[in-house]
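Structural prep section.
Before we set up the soaks we want a predicted structure of the protein with fe (ii) ion in place, mainly to decide which crystallisation condition to try first. Input record follows.
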Amino acid sequence: MSLSNEIINKKGYAILPINNMAKFNKLRNQFIKRMNISDSKKNINILRRNLAKMNKSEINKCMVNLLTFTEASNLMIESCSDIVSELSGNKIFVQRRAATIFNLPGKDQRRQWPHYELMSGISPFTFVLWAPFHDLDDDGGVFYLNQDQSNEYIKREQEQGLVNSPLILNELFNHQPPKLKFGEVIVFNPFILHGNISFNSNLARVACSVRFQSAKQPLMQKNTDFFKFYKFN
Ligand SMILES: [Fe+2]
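Run finished without errors. Recording the tokens verbatim:
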């Protein structure tokens, strides 16, 4: 079965190997360097341990350090060029700023509410890549519902004339997050419901995500403020 068929018509998401690990390693190394935490310059696990101990304002400072990390989106797209070009061709719109995401362990951390990406105003032709900077070795992670399960929730919202409703946001999903390894990426369509579950560890989880779509498809609320044009050679 083709990847497009799997992602658009069938399950809605897939876990795949990253095809250009040289680029992905470069992305991770540049990220570590830009975080600028003295004793964690080379090792992702030391960095994760430091992040897990930080308070929210220290985390915010790290986020500010990443504001100039504008190469991240190209590096992420180029790491996964096989997937991106198969789904969206050689001329694409890519999110200007790939997001580097820290998830901190513990119950008191803000949880990422269950959501589907379409809620945020991207077009239905957008796909998302999400890849961790290390093996996912604890019980936490991001859970994903398949397309049929996601559609059930979206239809129930629609029947009630609701969008972004408590029906989805407050639901306690009991789905196991897939255990991705470093070097794997999950790609999913914007209708797939997903969310973060809390986890216990002394290491924070760090991942990178980026959105992209074919340049032949229309942009919607998220326009060229959010996306830039990119062409594979
Ligand atoms: Fe998301």
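Observations: Strands lie at 13-17, 91-95, 99-103, 127-132, 141-144, 184-188, 194-197, 205-214, 227-231.
Flagged for discussion at group meeting.
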